[in-house]
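Ticket #4471: structure export looks truncated?
Reporter: QA, pipeline team
Priority: medium

Steps to reproduce: submit the single chain below to the structure queue and open the exported record.
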Amino acid sequence: MKIPALFILLFLSSNFVQGNNRIYNILDYGAINDGQTINTRAIQNAIDSCSKQGGTVVFPAGDFLTGTLYLKSNVTLHLAENATILGSTDINDYPHNSPGYKFYGDTWVKQSLIYAEKQENIAITGNGTIDGQGWAFKTTTRKKPDRYMNRPYVLWFVECTNVKVENIFMTNSAMWMQHYLACNKVRIKGIRVFNHCNYNNDMIDIDGCKDVIISDCIGDTDDDALTIKSTSSRKSENIIVNNCILSSHCNAIKCGTESSGGFKNIVISNCIIRPSEQRTTIYGTPNGISGITLGMVDGGILDGININNIIIDGVTVPLYMRLGNRARAYRPDQGEIPVGSFKNVQISNIYATGADSISCSITGIPGHPIENISLSNIQISFNGGVTINENLFDVPELETHYPESTKFGVLPSSAFYIRHAKNVNINRVQFSYNKTDTRPALICEDVNNLRLQNISVGINSKPKYMLGLKNCSNVTVSGWMINSPIEALVNIEGVASEEIGIYNNQGKFVKKVQLGRDANKNILKR
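Actual output as written to the record:
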């Protein structure tokens, strides 16, 4: 059906009211779509007019160059197809904003292309593009915090409620693409992000937000992709992520690194992690450092994370969980930061291929275990090809380090290294290797209440023993299937090892158990 020309004119007119939704076309306020004229004042005038009664500010087709825009309550920015908001390449077009809300970084992050603070019912919709042109703001120093200054975000929303961002394409941020800080009721759906022009090119940062739904998004970024942070006392909580396709040179799915308040009640499901289309890197590696990272190092509480139905292709380390003690304060007067807590994580139905030889890891620190971890229905294919040697067994604690999955280097286990943990249940997992690897598949140290059940290990895994236990207690090993000849299924070391049950395992192992250094001969359950 042909749409009458009169209707089109009415829709584009600032005086047209569609139901309760008033339309404000930025052309009516003097904006010019040539990609060269700075339109900040014209667009802001349209936003200001719209905010008086609420409505939609429309960007028709064309390229609109602008500096910082202040989004206000009850305003939707709608980008028509072939409409592009271009960020100015002049840093003077980005005035400093100092939010009243205090967080780590508030002394050096001050600029954004689109900014909103303490606003309600705000939205950005449509099939258009926001291009930050962030290549124009390359940092000239690696010194903190100078390297973060004068690099605007594309979107920065602080303490806002009822936020919606839908369907738009975002590219070329000078810093993080979008930072949602201490916001409530956030809905992000159907967006596409390609962010590879500068340092710290995250896809999205959810920071101390509550009641968030992210779905049907596609992101490809140099730095972390889906990033959930806590740079203040506020937890990121009640968050659902579903049906996304993610690529990152660093971490595709990440809780952390900043964790001051922590993370609670987060569900991530039905996602694909694939190699980036951008093969040159600023950070990380072309295929990505980590698929899933949970990193708690600045205090805070991680409690209630469920990750399900994830395909991971090509990243160095598919799964990484870390409780550390970097103890970074988000404000100068905080005093000593206590070690955080890390508990109640369920990860299931993971299929990962092309993993490197470093190994996955789940690690706390002495006296502060990771607790209540469940892994089930997991298949991981590793490159393998590592020959075991004594040097690999000296794994440093690195309590105060940045939590990166590659920090420990190549681990002494070929699949999982677990240390300082409590109540760990691993069930129905399969490990395979492209090249012969002589490391034990799993090494567990200082783990209490450990269930390792129904584990299958491929023929290229050829260690002397398949499972190493050191100072572990209340352990059950059952239903293992070993597909290559080995000397023993389990090697046990440490004076604290006790109550270990080994039942109903099958394979080509000469003996079920070998006792190593300091092991008590009476530790096996009968």
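Status: closed, not a bug. The export was complete when the record was re-opened. Leaving a note from the reviewer for reference: Residues 21 and 261 are 38 Å apart (CA to CA).
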